Amino acid sequence: MSNRPNAGDVGVPMPPCDHQPRPYTGPDRDELVRLRRRYLNPAIFHYYADPIAIVAGHMQYLWDERGRRYLDALGGVVTVSVGHCHPKITRRLREQVGRLVHTTTIYLHPNVVRLAEALAARLPEGSGLTRSYFTNSGSDSNELAVLMARLHTGRYDILALRSGYHGCSETTLGLTGVGTWKYPNPTPPGIRHVPNAYCYRCPFGARYPGCDLRCAHNIEDVIRYETGGEIAGLIAEPIQGVGGIIVPPREYFEVVYAIVRRYGGLCIADEVQTAWGRTGAHYWGFENFGVLPDIVTMAKGIGNGTPLGACTTRDEIAQVLARRLHFNTFGGNPVSALAGLATLEVVEEEHVQERARRVGAYLKEKLVALQDKHELIGDVRGMGLLLGVELVRDRGTKEPAIDETARVFELARERGLLLGKGGLFGNVLRITPPMCLSEADCDFLAACVDRCLTLAAR
Ligand SMILES: Cc1ncc(COP(=O)(O)O)c(C=O)c1O
Questions:
Q1: Residues 331, 116: contact at Cβ < 8 Å?
Q2: What domains appear along the chain, each with residue ranges and CATH number?
Q3: Least CB-packed of 201, 335, 343, 395 within 10 Å?
């Protein structure tokens, strides 16, 4: 099996892998393209001009229908936290699927309560963040968070950050602050966007730390000018993922949370990409910024690829939902809840946070080193294994290198590396691999990006 599907010009080979997926016997790629074009909603977009079929996965690697192997630097879509088809999780899921797939949370089941207990034990001690509602996605979880914040405070206005991404349902699309994801419908009432801490492209043209965090303080102006002075809350990702891996300064959230609370709002941390160790140091992204949210939402990697989301909050906030009937058919089902439990076990047994920190730092150093060689690299940022490389045509004007990024993306795929793409202009390479990534994988990844940048700049 080839390490480099279509090209052999990356100096460092992809590390060997013993796993041999079972032969694929389904429709060929062209047939998949035909069926997709005919029957799927055209909004369901694919990566790559020449889309690839992915039919098998093992840990940090994926295979296409012809048996070519890829290093998955996107980790599903930040959904596969500890490895594709991780053997322990797969074994536990097989047992569960053979026993009971679904009934409803109307009946008791151990998996859902065990997972809720495990979450409560891993949120900061004394935080009171002990009440979980399980869902199927990040959008679901964020919808719930906003609903509870509004009911609990008796207020309606929710603030969200520019460059934030919170989902594709009506409310969460409204909360999303990246124009490429928005339709020309009006934003739902009660949503206000505030500038984010995008230091590389500061919305105020200022420079940290001399800026005195104008972006954070500006939130107070938005509340004063645009609301009645009372808000239901603010939702923010600790590190913005889809928006381009944007990491705010360490003290940013302390300022923001204080303002939000001064105006009666709750602070919602959208941990859909950052939860459970991806940032390398803690279970939760917010812990990197010394703050404690009132509501925490999570999804994606917590189920290692199974549909699992959660919204966890304090008892008095959670109580508001019990005023009426509230229900989620698949939320908290035995299979997804078990996937969450098994993923958490692996995170701990395999010291995944520590690995994300160590391997992430190793990779970031290599990417930063590439900046000396490639004018195209404007900025390298991120924490742990949540990394971004912003490409620009000109380091002075910071003109986004949109076509070049697209080219790097395609060239990398031809060499066996699957990257993610983000940012308002699609000019940020997103690197969020399964956290079992090795240093040898990083060597290949960096060499491949190096080669692709050289080719893309020509
Ligand atoms: C930070 C964040 N929040 C929410 C969502 C929405 O999650 P889902 O697609 O599972 O609804 C995403 C998805 O990318 C996300 O990155």
A1: no
A2: 29-72+352-457 (3.90.1150.10), 90-349 (3.40.640.10)
A3: 395
Determine if ligand 1 sits within 6 Å of the CB of residue 176. Answer: no
**What six digits make up the tokens of 395?**
């380091």
For the cut 80, the answer to whether the pLDDT of residue 2 exceeds it is: no
CB distance 237 to ligand 1 below 6 Å = yes
Residues sharing a CB contact under 8 Å with residue 245, sequence separation 6 or more, in sequence order: 239, 381, 382, 386, 387, 388, 422, 428, 430
Label residue 43 exposed, middle or buried (CB < 10 Å: 0-12, 13-18, 19+): exposed
The verdict on the CB of residue 272 being under 6 Å from ligand 1 is yes
SS3 labels along 191-259: EEEECCCCHHHCCCCCCCCCCCCHHHHHHHHHHHHHCCCCCCEEEECCCECCCCCECCCCCHHHHHHHH
Q: What is the DSSP string of 347-402?
A: HHHTTHHHHHHHHHHHHHHHHHHHHHH-TTEEEEEEETTEEEEEEBS-TTT--B-H
Centroid of ligand 1 to alpha carbon of 165 (angstroms): 7
Q: 293 CA to middle of ligand 1, Å?
A: 18
pLDDT, tens digit, for every residue of 35-87?
Answer: 999 999 999 999 999 999 999 999 999 999 999 999 999 999 999 999 999 99
- Binding site membership of 143 for ligand 1 (Cβ less than 6 Å): no
Which ligand 1 atom is the nearest neighbour of the CA of 237?
Answer: 1
| SS3 call for 71 | strand
Give the tens place of pLDDT for each residue, 216-248.
999 999 999 999 999 999 999 999 999 999 999
Extract the tokens encoding 278: 């991806």
For residue 175 and ligand 1, the question of a CB distance below 6 A is answered with: no
Q: Atom 1, ligand 1: which residue's CA is nearest?
A: 272
Residue 445's closest CA among 338, 343, 354, 369? 369
Antiparallel, parallel or unpaired: β 61-64 and 266-270: unpaired
Ligand 1 atom closest to Cα of residue 242: 16
Cα 413–chain centre separation: 21
For ligand 1, the distance from its centroid to the CA atom of residue 39, given in whole angstroms, is 25
Query: How far is the first Cα of the chain from the last one, in angstroms, to the nearest whole number?
Result: 30
Query: Is the CB–ligand 1 distance for residue 293 below 6 Å?
Result: no
Amino acid, res. 310: A
With a 6 A CB cut-off, is 270 part of the ligand 1 pocket?
yes
Q: Is 420 in the pocket of ligand 1 (CB under 6 A)?
A: no
Pocket test for ligand 1, best of 161, 176, 272, 274 (most atoms within 8 A of CB): 272
Dihedral sign, CA of 27, 31, 35, 36? positive
